[in-house]
Amino acid sequence: MHRSAAHALVLAHEGAPDNANILVSLAYASRASGETASARDYYRQAVSLDPELSRLSADF
Fold first, then answer.
1. Helices assigned H by DSSP within 1-60
2. Most C-beta atoms within 10 A of its C-beta, which of 9, 18, 43, 58?
3. DSSP secondary structure letter of residue 59
4. End-to-end Cα separation, the chain, in angstroms
């Protein structure tokens, strides 16, 4: 399930590359799939777009 969700989120990200919420969702999906490095990268990108998301740092 996580892979299909991640795929849908990747497509959404391609359509809206500056959407921090999509990036956070990608980070969570990546983390759930065990891809922690990717999760951190997506999270960092999200925070660069929306610094208020730094409150989620404990998750990554």
1. 2-15, 20-32, 36-49
2. 43
3. G
4. 21
